[in-house]
Amino acid sequence: MTDRPDLAALDLLVGIDDHGGLGAAARSAGIAQPNATRMLRRLEKQLGAVLVRRGRTGSVLTPEGTVVAHWAREALADIDRMLDAAAALRVDHHPELVVAASMTVAEHLIPRWLGEFRAVHSDVQIQLQVHNSVQVCDAVAADECDVGFVEGPSVPEGLYSVPVARDRLVVVVPPDHPWARKRRPLTVPELAATPLVVREVGSGTRRTLDLALQEYERPAPLLELGSSAAVRTSVLGGVGPAVLSTLAVADDLESGRLRAVEVDGLDLPRVLRAVWRPPRALAGSAGELVRSITRGR
């Protein structure tokens, strides 16, 4: 596997794209040009591609460098969003907006949502709490947060909600699992009779699965874990099958590290929701956050 490139080198590459040359990009980043040249040469060696064309009038991006700069811009934006979300986990300030999110939402959606919100509302201090879906609803009902985000199949009575995203639960196994080689779809009774790696009771993923298989007598889980990331790691390690959100396993399915197993007669789409206490109209920063999310769907 290629070593991960230095973020400062990626930022410099984007700067060349923005400013039209290495000298201007180095000045903007506050880096001496000889150091900037060394950083770029190291990046080119890592990636195995010529990114910058050096000439008498300066250094500009090659076509390959332009493409990599585009990818780098997206990667750096993702990191900025992650930093915004991570900052919201700190409790050393007095937040104006307290957000609670279920694990799946927090792992895969909240960094982008909070990053985009902070780009417009940089003055709003945000605190992020991470729970499972039942605990998020409890926190909303107890007035411990301004708005929550859950992936459960239902919202408790007395709370208002609005859809903010959708996903789907899929059965996943490693490529060497017998289910990955089945020529016919798995049946629902076969799935129900198999011990699985599952999320903890109270998570939206667990509730959706339990409701789908509620008419069957099921064995005890192989493992019960507190996050989709932990379940995914267990499946990759060969512990057993699991039912997980497509948000959690999209990269693994695309790379072939995991395989999705079709189950005849079982489809598990889900609506992810923002939830809040009355009144029906969500006002203030919480309302602005939810509106920014729904506008971007």
Automatic annotation (TrEMBL):
Keywords: DNA-binding, Transcription, Transcription regulation. Residues 5-62 form the HTH lysR-type domain. Gene3D superfamilies: Periplasmic binding protein-like II, Winged helix-like DNA-binding domain superfamily/Winged helix DNA-binding domain. It comes from the Bacteria. Coiled coil: none annotated. The keyword Transcription regulation applies. One of its GO terms (molecular function) is transcription cis-regulatory region binding. Belongs to the LysR transcriptional regulatory family. This is LysR family transcriptional regulator. It comes from Rhodococcus coprophilus. The gene is cysL.
